[in-house]
Amino acid sequence: MPLAPEEVGEIREILGREPTPEELAMFEAQWSEHCSYKSSRLLLKLLPTGGSRVLVGPGRDAPAVEVFPGIAVVFKIESHNHPSAVDPYNGAATGIGGIVRDILTLGARPIALLDLLYLGEPSDPHASWIARGVVKGISDYGNRIGVPTVAGDTWFDSSFNRQPLVNVACVGLAKVEDLVGEQPRPGDLIVIVGNSTGRDGLLGSSFASKPLGKDVDRDIGAVQVADPLTEKLLIDSLAELVQRRLARYIKDLGGGGLTTAVSEVAAEFNLGAELDLDKLHLRTELTPLEILVSESQERMMVVVEPGKLSEVERVFEKYDLRYSIVGVFTDNGRIVARFRGRVVADVPSKELARPRAIRRASRPPAEALNGLTPALGLPEVSIPDSILKVLSSPNVSSRRWIYEQYDHEVGARTAVKPGYADAAVLKLDAGDRRGIAVKGDANPRYTYLDPFNGAANSVAECFRNLVSVGATPVAIVDELNAGNPEKPEQFWYFEMMLKGLAWMAGELGLPVVGGKVSFYNEDHLGRQVKPTTTIVGVGVVEEVSNVATMDFKVAGSAVVVVGTTFPELGGSEYLHRVHGLEVGEIPRPRPSSELRNSSLVLELVRRGLALAVHDIGLGGLGVALAEMAVLGGVGVEVDLGRVPCRGCLRVDEVVFSETQARYVVEVKAGDVDEVLELAGRMGVEVSVVGRTLSSGVYRLRSGGAVAELPLEVLRSTYLESLESSFR
Amino acid sequence: MVRVAVVKFPGTNCDEDVVRAFRELELDVEAKVVWYKDFRSAKWDAVVIPGGFSYGDWLRAGAIAARTKVLDEVREGVSRGLPVLGICNGFQVLVEAELLPGALLPNESGMFTCRWVRTVVERPRGPWLSLVPDRSRLDMPVAHAEGRYYVDEVTYSEISLKCPHLRYERGWNPNGSTYDIAGVGSENGSVLGLMPHPERAVGVLTPRGFNPGGELILRSIALSLRKGW
Q: What is the DSSP letter of A366?
């Protein structure tokens, strides 16, 4: 069990007596890694979290940043890895439910979801079952609650065959003046609203804080069951409470259930609480222990001052939501729970909410040397064949099979939709031309080979994707998916990812306003999955009709590459797909180039000089050009000799290198001089490498012809590869 | 100002989108979300039953909402000529309530599908299509799991000869609808059901290669209500 013997000893000391079974369960839930961050808390202090736009930083259920004067974006990321391994459909669906409720706690209206899925190989039957269930779960839940799933990231790798990573993020919108978060006072009522409490998700956070068992079916009771209709009613009723200012404070009943919700609020505001467990509405008869730690979904705690209770009750009754008044906050710092007249728990809230941080040992494993093993003497391969192979990779090809299952339009804000650009763009409101861009990114192979630089590259990739649509990045949240923190060789990856993230976020001036840590991502044999740093970022768009998508628009434009290419094939999709290698030094993070090159791209979009923009990422320049051509239905011809390179000796290095800080931009022929002049003034290396064609062909030259492919072939490869592996 | 009720059931989720679409187009229409318990048809000049998952799609999409008192009110309004538009789940509700013919079955793919499609309007008539020329193309997105329209042949020939309707353009049928039907109206066009979402096909929400097909429908009702049709 997750409570170690020395922790039980500590609990005895805190209480000065033997703990009751109920108290032990409360401590087990609250002191679980999932709720307490006990292994990560010391290192998390390295993250830059402040900034002029930050309204609410880490600590609350969700952070908030001011995107425009008076307008806040509340966004947060969450993992549901363990439940999704056991019950993919409900695991993923309840992940969406949980992250949406986090956004509601600040009084924001959820306007977008992102799903970041790291799944097993589609050819593996078990992994395919997980993938289908996860996508269906997100689809059914997200669609039903009326929040569009607008962006995400998907990756397929055999290390995730048994244990996927299911990260979900939600973005909410609120007026700054409407943000909820007054200080609860003694005498305030604790109202629990939503679903009846049942036995599902019992000690789920403690289940998520240990490795996956061999027989996962035995853990099925730790997975919660999803009820999107109740969630939708919670969204609607809380919007009404917030608008009428009837809630003093709102908190989700998530991991740790009632125990965590009450103890965290009490601890933060130096309060105690009296709970009457008989009052809570139940689905079935439960013991007090079960009531305290059940993680039944779609429940929220609303802190209400007594004078406003009747108004609050009327709102819940309007929406036919069940609720109960389970207790009051007190000033004595103790959480006292009663059941049938008997005190079943009496614990100090501070000690319950905040276990001692643990300093974990960290040591690089021998495997980490893969990241230093050069891929020497690669055989000569056909470039056109390689382009098709990389383009057909499930990590590269179109995610249409996934995003068409999601309602990405509900809300009527999605100005740039999935599949059209590097990030999604959402319009603020009717009659308002402003918007925000959102995107999430990770590269598990990078973080596996080099966790520090890999995590840094995740931040940079997210940054570039926002810039590509013409958005100014303002803040990010992170999800660190790591192995077993008790194993130094696995904890090392977490430590390095965190440091890489902290470094790059600081360099790019992006506050990490919130995040989540997920440990124990091991399969039943104790092998960790590829450690993965997922970043979700938000950018500001001044005018939603002036954004860039990545499809080539017209024939006869100039194709411009921004940034310098280095021979960086280590850890690339090309090396993996074509040569079967997962080794090498991954592309170096280049923060100063990122900043310089992005400011040029933003200026080009702002001045209307960029007809199309695409960042060069996975698969390199060859793939970026193919995607732009396919999506636009416009041919392209590029002279590789004109791509700004340093040290590239082979053609495949120019075509497939994944060097950071690069973009492809389509520029109207008549605007080329202005673009070059601007780039020169800003000190950005750019080059006109080719042009778009009126014929449906994709052509790369370097002296002679390197690759020539009909657009139709690229199109079917790009659009249908993923779909056909799930048909 | 003319008043349009946008009826919200538990689980409806496109209600505010409809209201905002009217605002976005700056139409002279007061569109308001009305909670289903509070809906009385006499107070309104037109009614929209918007998309979503009323009652969580329990039983069948639209089946429970169709049996609420709201639909008695709507039926009474329809008998007076009140314009009623059902979008997506609203269309499913109108079909379940037998205010429109046919049925909406699960998509042929078996999956929820969200994508932009092209539709062609035939025999436009009535308040919702008053500005729409015959055979014109309206592009809009669909987002549903149960949108495969089905009717028997007799009813179909009646629809095609007498009623306003929308078809998916050849090659754009997203769900396997018979005769590519995307939307169907009553004979005089005062009741209209659409699987595509007009409120999402407005202004900058329209992707490259498509037209903002919802605008003409919303403008039609605004004008019709002001001038009579």
A: G
Q: Are residues A285 and A162 in the same domain?
A: no
pLDDT in tens, A415-454: 999 999 999 999 999 889 999 999 999 999 999 999 999 9
Contact A414 B205 (CB under 8 A): yes
Strands A414-416 and A334-339: unpaired
Closest-CA distance, B200 to chain A, in angstroms, reads: 5
Report the catalytic residues of B.
Answer: 88, 197, 199
Secondary structure letter of residue A475 according to DSSP? E
Chain B interface disruption, residue of A407, A426, A429, most B CBs within 10 A: A407
Token reading at A605: 């979009």
* pLDDT classification of A375: cutoffs 50, 70, 90: confident
A228: domain CATH number?
A: 3.90.650.10
Q: Is the pTM of this model over 0.90?
A: yes
* From A34, A82, A408, A614, the catalytic residue: A34
Place of tokens 């007076």: B80
Report, in angstroms and rounded to the nearest whole number, the Rg of chain B calculated over CA atoms.
16
- CA dist A352 and B177 (Å) reads 58
CATH number at residue A72: 3.30.1330.10
Our CA dihedral for A293, A295, A300, A305, rounded to 10 degrees, sits at 0
Task: Give the DSSP H or E segment for A329.
Answer: strand A323-330
* A470-516 per-position pLDDT tens digit: 999 999 999 999 999 999 999 999 999 999 999 999 999 999 999 99
- The nearest alpha carbon in chain B to A146 belongs to B13
Q: How far is A50 from A57, CA to CA, in rounded Å?
A: 7
Measured CB to CB, residues of chain A less than 8 Å from chain B are: 139-140, 143-146, 227-229, 232-233, 318-320, 403-415, 417, 420, 427, 429-431, 544-545, 549, 551, 553
Give bridge partners of residue A535 from the DSSP assignment. Answer: A441, A478
Of A669, A565, A579, the residue nearest A617 (C-alpha): A565
Domain count, chain B: 1
Query: How far apart, in whole angstroms, are the C-alpha atoms of residue A490 and residue A526?
Result: 10
Q: How many CB atoms lie within 10 A of CB B219?
A: 17
Which range of residues forms the domain containing residue A431?
Answer: 52-176+404-540
The residues, ordered by sequence, that sit 6+ positions from A668 with a Cβ below 8 Å of its Cβ are A554, A557, A558, A609, A611
Q: Which of A144, A415, A429 sits opposite B11 (nearest CB)?
A: A144
The residue of B25, B89, B114, B175 whose CB has the most chain A CBs within 10 angstroms, and thus the best one to mutate to test that interface, is B114
- Asked if residue A45 is part of any domain, the answer here is no
Judged by CB atoms closer than 8 Å, whether chains meet at B23 and A545 is answered as: no
pLDDT bin (cut points 50, 70, 90) of residue A377 is confident
CA-based angle A619:A625:A629, to the nearest 5?
130
Query: Which residues of chain B have a CB within 8 Å of the CB of A420?
Result: 207-208
- Indicate the residue of B58, B113, B204 with minimum beta-carbon distance to A415: B204
Cβ–Cβ gap A232/B143 under 8 Å: no
Nearest Cα neighbor of A482 from A534, A440, A524, A441 is: A534
Beta-carbon separation of A146 and B199 below 8 A:
no
Q: Structure tokens of A3?
A: 């409570």
Task: Kindly state the tokens that stand for B211.
Answer: 């037209």
A584: left (phi over 0), alpha (psi -120 to 50) or beta: left
Task: Give residue A215's pLDDT.
Answer: 60
**A563 and A611 share a domain?**
yes
Helix (H) or strand (E) holding A560: strand A558-562
CB contact at 8 A, A561 and A625: no
